[in-house]
Amino acid sequence: MEGRIVEVQDTWREGALVDDAKYREMYKASVSDPEAFWGEHGKRIDWMTPYTRVKNTSFEPGQISIKWFEDGKTNVAYNCVDRHLGTRGEQTAIIWEGDSPDESKHITYRELHAQVCRWANVLRNRGVGKGDRVTLYLPMVPEAAYAMLACARLGAIHAIVFGGFSPDSLAQRIQGCGSKVVITADEGLRGGRKVPLKANVDEAIKRLGSPIVEHVVVVRRTGGAVAMEPGRDVYYDEAAEQVTDECPAEPVEAEHPLFILYTSGSTGQPKGVVHTTGGYLVYASMTHQYVFDYREGDIYWCTADVGWVTGHSYIVYGPLANGATTLMFEGIPTYPSNSRFWDVVDKHKVNIFYTAPTAIRSLMGGGEGPVKKTSRASLRVLGSVGEPINPEAWDWYYKVVGDSRCAIVDTWWQTETGGILITPLPGATALKPGSATRPFFGVKPEMVDAEGKVLDGACEGNLCIADSWPGQMRTVYGDHERFEQTYFSTYPGKYFTGDGARRDTDGYYWITGRVDDVINVSGHRMGTAEVESSLVAHPKVSEAAVVGYPHNVKGQGIYAYVTLNEGENGDDGLRKELVAWVRKDIGPIASPDLIQFAPGLPKTRSGKIMRRILRKIAEDDFGSLGDTSTLADPAVVDDLIDNRQNRA
Ligand code: WTA
Q1: Least C-beta-crowded within 10 Å: which of 131, 510, 532, 543?
Q2: DSSP annotation string for 103-150
Q3: Percent of the chain, pLDDT > 70?
Q4: How many angstroms from the chain centroid is the CA of residue 634?
Q5: How far is CA 314 from CA 110, 300, 321, in A?
Q6: What is the mean pLDDT of residues 627-646?
Q7: Measured between alpha carbons, how far is 251 from 78 in angstroms, rounded to an integer?
Q8: How far is it, in rounded angstroms, from Cα 644 to Cα 517?
């Protein structure tokens, strides 16, 4: 099945921005002379002070530094809103589709401008200015976009925390970036259920060591009663009455930070990924246009949450910079029925649809019926992101959802990359189900073996990127050393992605998944170390090791090996207790799927846990455990196998 080719259809090529020849020509130009290429494409956004320098980047050990368009000045909100007012003020910028199918609204660019300005004034009145950090903990409501753009307008740095994170996780992130303002809603609404966002913020603030947060701005979403602390908390609508809807956009340096977004890595502490202004916006807008073959007038829908990078780049910044109509969806794919995605597509005549394999797989479980009873005639391009899409899900997406008529773009990228790096282009790239295909303009993938030797031709190895692109993260917030250590020390001189990949004879890339201790659960990134440190914090647990295992719907599930303290009894009751513990500690996305109580973990004589063995057992593939001779106590392995929780 792998390697099967789905040719570009004539209808995809008609009117497309690039065909195969044009892609090859542009790609070649982009990597042979990045200065000239990006010097030209950097002009796709408006600059208040034009740049004269284009690329100033170094991947050299000890000197990691990434700067693009560094002497230019611009403003992201200006580019996403103001510059469209002359030509498309009355066009819809955002279509908001609520959790309930009865609720939706259209916001024009002119309305967006007024909203963003008002938000900026409310924040400015609370002391927010250039360089200040603002944490957003919001549901998928238009106010999330207004608040992001308001921060950008003032030169403030937003740090969004996904609404599914617990108060502890939220506190850690507020503390990490020192936000003095938090923006939240009374409650969120997903699949008919309420999420206590304001209550979580209150809990989080209580846990902060010092009084960092001066103001909490609360959006009324459900109208539910919440505690309001006088002097600190204010309802947005009340604060908004005190200000005007005019607020100038502050010109900032191209390298001024736009946002911080926390993401999981191999250690227990999430990293604050920093993205800046100019290069990020150029890259997000350019990839949005080319990868989705975005055309004037298209209705574009990305189903991600703004709490993840996909929501930043491909719900808000990329599409709005391009003057697109972007759809924001508050709900979930299965509420009120399994047809919801396709009902929304028909209701708003969506042309471009971008989702995650986990959503596709969960809908596949409901069969073709809920899809086939909708029209979906407006669809032209279907995107996938977040994890490898297995060929079965790819086929279902292509044939059932797209009626074998729509191009599929399997887009590989990361929080760190700011935008899509490896992807087909609809009018240009012959598709292979399961492959993210070829690099975007300016991206130089390099495959290396474990020793760092660069591999040629068809090969399998670790995926690196040899040179910088404008959307690349610039640093880990407050810890440049960690940035260098994490991404540039494994293979000096290259950015290491943490992903393994295969390259075939056509030069197509097949991402095989993470090679580090990061797992991808329903497209959400999770560090196994984060789950482990949560488990060992439980009073009955002495030790824990967490690995991923293949899961039909989620892609990967979370498998936890837990060693209990002397005298504790591992039973289903304790399993439930531990799951609840982790949910409360980190958030529902970190809930272990399977817990195995283990009297001992397989360790080397030097005390290092042999995760390779734990992964194999979790995969129910223990026939070939490889070399176990370095184990301190080989007998623990037999017990682990006997009591394994995932039995095919
Ligand atoms: C994985 C999400 C295969 C990969 C934008 C990467 C993918 C991690 C794909 C980043 C894809 C993302 N095919 N794997 N099309 N897209 N991944 O930071 O392992 O949440 O390293 O960014 O997701 O996840 P993150």
Answers
A1: 131
A2: -EEEEEHHHHHHHHHHHHHHHHHTT--TT-EEEEE--SSHHHHHHHHH
A3: 100
A4: 40
A5: 21, 9, 10
A6: 89
A7: 9
A8: 21
Model ipTM over 0.90: yes
- Residue 518 in tokens: 């990061």
What is the model's pLDDT at position 2?
A: 54
How many other CB atoms are found less than 10 A from the CB of residue 222? Answer: 16
Provide the 10 A C-beta neighbour count for residue 387: 24
State the amino acid at position 617 in one-letter form: I
Number of the ligand 1 atom closest to the C-alpha atom of 308 = 20
Tokens of 49: 């002070």
Task: Determine the Cα–Cα distance for residues 157 and 177; give it in Å rounded to an integer.
Answer: 10
User: How does residue 1 score in pLDDT terms, banded at 50, 70 and 90?
Assistant: very low
Provide the phi-psi class of 168: left if phi over 0, else alpha when psi is between -120 and 50, else beta: alpha
Burial state string for 269-299 with b = 16 or more CB within 10 A and e = fewer than 16: bbbbbbbbbbbbbbbbbbbbbbbbbbbeebb
Ligand 1 centroid distance, CA of 119 (Å): 32
Peptide bond into 336 cis (omega under 30): yes
Tokens of 519: 């797992």
Strand partners, 469: none
Q: Tell me the percentage of the chain whose pLDDT exceeds 90.
A: 94
Mean of per-residue pLDDT scores for the chain: 96
H helices within 381-422, ranges in order? 391-396
Comparing C-alpha atoms, which of 10, 7, 13 is closest to residue 437? Answer: 7
- Give 321-387 as a DSSP string: HTT-EEEEE-S-TTSS-TTHHHHHHHHHT-SEEEE-HHHHHHHHTT-SHHHHTS--TT--EEEEESS
In the chain the first and final C-alpha atoms are separated, in Å, by: 23
306 three-class SS? coil
Helix (H, G, I), strand (E, B) or coil at 81: coil
Contact assessment for residue 343 and residue 353, using Cβ atoms and an 8 Å cutoff:
no
HEC sequence for 32-65:
HCHHHHHHHHHHHCCCCECCCCCEEEECCCCCCE
Q: Atom of ligand 1 at shortest distance to CA of 498?
A: 21
Residue with the nearest Cα to atom 6 of ligand 1? 414
605 marked ligand binding residue: no
- Tell me the two tokens of residue 284: 């997000």
At 588, is the secondary structure helix, strand, or coil?
helix
pLDDT of 635 over the 90 cut: no
Give the atom of ligand 1 at the shortest distance from the alpha carbon of 524: 20
Residue 193: helix, strand or coil by DSSP? strand
Centre of ligand 1 to C-alpha 572, Å, is 33
Ligand 1 interacting residues, C-beta cut-off 6 A: 263, 308-310, 385-388, 410-415, 436, 497-499, 511, 513-514, 520, 525
| Band of residue 545 on the pLDDT scale cut at 50, 70, 90 | very high
Q: Is 124 annotated as a binding residue?
A: no
pTM comes to: 0.95
**Residue 289 and residue 324 in contact, taking contact as beta carbons nearer than 8 Å:** no
Q: Which of 563, 565, 532 minimizes the C-alpha distance to 547?
A: 532
Pick the atom of ligand 1 nearest to 497's CA.
21
Mutate to test the pocket of ligand 1, among 263, 266, 387, 524 (most ligand atoms within 8 A of CB): 387
User: Measuring CA to CA, which residue among 181, 194, 142, 116 is closest to residue 306?
Assistant: 142
